[in-house]
Write a structure and sequence with these properties.
The protein has one domain. It has five helices and no strands. Helix content is 61%, strand content 0%. Helix 2 packs antiparallel against helix 3 and helix 3 packs across helix 5. With 189 residues, the protein is mainly α.
């Protein structure tokens, strides 16, 4: 019976995302004192979901940087007296931004799955990272009560709140215009 190899990613271990969310995560999981079934489920989320979503965000950013650089380099100021000018543009910029935000929000959602596996919680929506559903706690509130306010895990999660909330709210404004997160007018990074 032959071995079957299938390509899962366009990037190898020289990409830090693949190295850290693949090889290093598996090595860390091997050192954890958790059930093999839980370890395998976490590894599956990392290898088949988190890694792919983060790679897609990285690819979108790389395309943007490349196209932006090309647009800047190709710009030629209008000659004196010319009525028409060529304004450089990045094709599909809005769609790429929407895709980036979608992948990022799903990345956070999948991180919650890992947290659920490790700590027996039941977080589902990316916004639960920073905002509690009615009658429950947010991930950050849970961490503070379960681990303590000064625990490194709690501090790490608290430091991430501002950026996670910002990105999730941007995506929610795209998905639900005029809703809780408002409208998508401009993005300031």
């Amino acid at each position: 019976m032959p071995f079957v190899f299938s390509k899962l990613l366009e990037h190898g271990a020289s990409n830090p995302i693949v190295a850290r969310l693949g090889l290093q995560t598996l090595q860390i999981l091997d050192q954890c004192k958790i059930a093999k079934e839980t370890r395998d489920k976490i590894a599956e989320v990392y290898m088949h979901s988190l890694q792919k979503k983060l790679i897609r965000c990285w690819e979108i950013e790389e395309r943007f940087r490349s196209e932006f650089k090309s647009a800047v380099e190709s710009y030629k100021p209008p000659l004196s007296g010319n009525q028409a000018i060529h304004l450089p543009q990045i094709a599909r910029l809005e769609e790429e931004c929407h895709n980036f935000l979608y992948e990022m929000k799903n990345y956070v959602r999948d991180l919650l799955k890992v947290f659920n596996l490790l700590y027996g919680t039941d977080f589902k929506e990316a916004s639960e990272f920073f905002r509690a559903k009615k009658g429950s706690k947010s991930l950050v509130e849970f961490a503070a009560s379960a681990f303590g306010q000064n625990d490194p895990k709690t501090k790490f999660l608290q430091e991430a709140v501002q950026q996670v909330e910002y990105m999730v709210n941007l995506r929610n404004a795209v998905e639900h215009p005029g809703g809780y997160s408002g409208e998508t007018a401009s993005i300031e990074l």
